Each structure stands twice: as structure tokens, then as C-alpha cells.
Amino acid sequence: MKLLTPLLLLLSLTAAIDLNIDDKASIKAAAARMAAKLRELYPRGQPWFNPGEFGILPSTTGKNIGYYWWEGGAAMGAWIDYWFITKDDQYNAIVTEALLHQVGPDNDYQPPNQTLSLGNDDQAFWGIAVLAAAEKGYPDPPPDKPQWLALAQAVFNRQVVRWDTEFCGGGLRWQVFRSNQGYNYKNSISNGLLFQIGARLARYTGNQTYADLAKRTYDWQKTIGLTNTTNYYVYDGAHVPDCVVTSKVQWSYNAGTLLAGAAAMYDYYATLGNQPSMDFWQNETMNLLRGIDMPFFNMNDGLPNIMRESGCESSPRDNFARPPTCNIDQRSFKAYLSRFMGYTHQLCPFTRDYIMARLRPSAIAAAKACTGQPGGDTCGLSWLMGKYDGAPYGVVVGGVGEHMATMELFQTLLIGDAAPLKTMKTGTSKGDPAAGTGSGTVGDLRQTGPTTVGDRAGAGILTVVTAVGIVALSAWLVWP
User: Which helix (H) or strand (E) holds 65?
Assistant: First the structure.
């Protein structure tokens, strides 16, 4: 484990949050403050409140302000982590209400009011929240409500039949519906989350079909060039029909998503005692960790091993002269990297020293960045500046991403004391391998509906193919 530099030690002397990374009570207290700061931004009591959403409202500029639907699911996953690690259940009522309210009429996290902007990644963030609930033993819903594992299976089943071989040799498109902007984009976060959900379902249920479908997605990422097979950098996406990765921008949640999936695959094969597959996924997990290191931890002159969203945060290389360009979504990405590194730490003992050598210095720096108002503990976006950077905070104004990120980071320092993740043999959540495949017509499981004469002709063929595929998939998943 690398030693902390003098500059990093200096950061720890004046932290507004009195964080001692060697004191579990101190870490838990810091995580609790961040959980409370996040709760302050949850708009219960507002006339437009909808359970599970942090709010998005029109502004005088004509551009909406606030948070897209997916980030509510991400926050519920963060509070599940908080409960799992700290055993503080004060936010559980919020989480349970939100997870059940947003399921949609078909219990698959595809509510009709999100149709105009529904991405596969959006749906998947709610899917990994309920999957985490199953894995972590979060209290089950009432018997007459959809169950956590079945909801995760519904999301996976919805998405796996959207696998599109017409362009790029496979992969999910970013958006679900043809009418949505971004339908012509195949990106790492949508495909990475499909990979991760499949890998985690394989691990939880013991069903090889999930693992096989996860591996297909992982291999496709490499084949198309979204995952660089030399340095394991993970790029954002490629447009259809060219299928060329033209932008080499990197986001931490893309890489983290693949990392957690690889960790789940390793653990799945470790349970089976399959040494060749264990070796493969151990190698992939470490390659992904090394690929994460330079872009997100070590492009910081004089401050090694501190997490930074390098695609949009200000850089210390020019003394933070250029302001950050991170949008609302991107301000939350570090939360998921911390979360997925913690998940990897739990399942892959060979990663633990490497991960903590980066999360511990990051936590010291992050605590120093939480000196803003209100409360004197409001956190900034940058963890490198040694002070609060003025990031906005307020209901529908800002702060959800920043405080979710610090909460996930702080609580992940305690992941070594957390209970083992559950499986079908040890957990209580009820599953349904065919969830998400029996609602309405078979056609509504496709990527989009037909819009032209040619589309309608092709859709008739696709409906038959999809129907056969769904029946076959359901049979595979039900078969032990």
C-alpha cells in the first residue's frame, strides 16, 4: 500500500468533516452526515414530488433543471449500501417506497411517464438497486408486491432481447425507443450494466445462462473497441451505423460498471471451482482496475491516488484555472466508481490492498472539500482543491451527485466489515426467471415499435423471432 504524501497529510489536518480513516466510528459518522445531506435534497413535501425522484422542473431559460429519473434509482442504491454497511435503517422507508413506486405497470422499471427519455442505462440503474437489495438482504417487500430479485430479472429480460445485431455485431442501443435522441448510439454504460446485471444474477442464482449472456456482452465491448484490450481504458460509445469509437472520453462509471461485473463473474466461477474461468476473470478484474488507475486517480500532480472525474473536473495541472464542465449526471459518477470498487473488494480478495490504497486517500481529500454552506459540511465536486469549490446545493438546484459520491466513498472504507453478499441459497428475495416477458404483447419487448411500411414488414418477422427467443430464454433461465 502506498504511503500518503505530505500534501495529502496536510489536507487531513483541516477537514471540516472530522474524518479519521483509521477509526471506524469516525468513518461511520462521516457517512451518516453525507446520508443526511442527501436526504435534505429529497423533495418530499413539494407539490410536484414523486417518490423516488429528486425532481426535474422547467426553467425560464427553456432548459429543464434538476435530475433525470435514473439518478433517483442510483440514490436508492446508495442508501441501500449505507444501510448494509452501517446498519442505520432511517432511510429504508424512503427507499422501499421509491423502489416499489417506480416499477411501472409491468413491474420492470419501464414506467410510461419516462418513455420520451428512457435509456437502457436508466432502467438498469433501478435494476441494480433492487439487485443490491436482494444481494445485501435488504428487507423484502410485502408478499403482495413485486420482489427485489424478480424485478432485477425483469429488467435483464427486458434488455437482453433488445440485443441488436443489425449494426456493430451486437450490443444495446443507448435509448430504448427509436423516437428518442440517442437511439443511434451504442454506449458502454448501457452495455456495461447489462453485463453487470447478468453477471450478478449468475452469481446470485447459480444459472449459467446469465453468465453466458454476460460474457457475450463483455466480449462485444472489446470487439467493437469500447474496451481497449491493451490498457483497458473504457470509452463512452459508438454511433450507428459506423460503429467507430470516435471519442476517447472516459467516464469513471463506465469503467466501474465493467469492474463490478468482472468481480461477480470471478465469484460465480470461484463458487463452482472452475479454475480456468476464475483465472480469466481474476486477470480481467485486475486489468480493469489498472485501467481505472491513471485516468481517475493519478492524473493529479502532487496528489496521487485521489479520485477525479477527469473528463469534466478542473485539473490541478493548471491550478484549477479552467472551471469544471460536469453536468448534473456527471457530478454523480464518482459515487458509482466507489460503489463498484467496494463490490469488487467484497468478492475479490486479491483486489483489496489495491482498492483501499486509492479509496483511503480519496476519502481524506473528499472530507476537506466538505466545508460549504449550508451547515459547513456541504461538499464540492472536486476532492483535490483542499476546500469547498462552490458547487451548488439545494432542492432541484444541485448537490445530489456530490453528496452521493462522498457518502459512497466514506462508507466503502468499511466494506471489509460488511456481511457476505447473499445468493439464492442464503437470501430471502423471491425470483421469477420469466419476469418481464409476459406483459402485453411480445412486440413491446422489442427495442422500438415500427414507424414505416418497411419497418412494419420487418417487425412481423422480428415479432416471430423475438417470441421464439423469449420462450427459449425463459426455458434456459428456469432450467437449473
Answer: strand 65-66
Q: In the numeric block, which cell numbers belong to residue 27?
A: 468513518
Lowest mean pLDDT among 11-20, 278-287, 392-401: 11-20
Longest dimension (CA), the chain: 68
Closest C-alpha to 346, from 285, 430, 429, 293? 285
Q: Which pTM was predicted?
A: 0.89
User: Please, what's the b/e burial string for 197-225 (b: 16 or more CB within 10 A of its CB; e: otherwise)?
Assistant: bbbbbbbbbbbebbbebbbbbbebbeebe
Nine-digit cell string for 231: 490498457
Cα 471 to the chain's mean position, in Å?
Answer: 29
Nearest residue to 159 via CA among 185, 115, 195:
195
User: In the prediction, which pLDDT does 64 show?
Assistant: 77
Q: How many other C-beta atoms can be found within 10 angstroms of the C-beta atom of residue 53? A: 23
How far apart CA 436 and CA 410 sit, in angstroms, is: 36
CB-CB contact of 189 with 257 (8 Å):
yes
Rounded percentage of the chain residues whose pLDDT exceeds 70: 87
Rounded Cα distance between 269 and 262, Å, is 11
How far does Cα 414 stand from its chain's mean position?
19
For residue 477, the model assigns a pLDDT of 53
The amino acid at 260:
A
pLDDT in tens, 155-191: 999 999 999 999 999 999 999 999 999 999 999 999 9
Residue 13 pLDDT > 90: no
- Which pairs count as long-range contacts for 111-115, CB under 8 Å and 24+ apart, including other chains? 114/69, 115/177
Contacts for 43 with CB less than 8 Å, ≥ 6 apart: 49, 53, 54, 55, 395, 396
Residue 252's identity, in one-letter code, is S
Joined grid coordinates for residue 10: 496536510
Question: In the structure grid, which three cell numbers stand for residue 418, read together?
Answer: 460488511
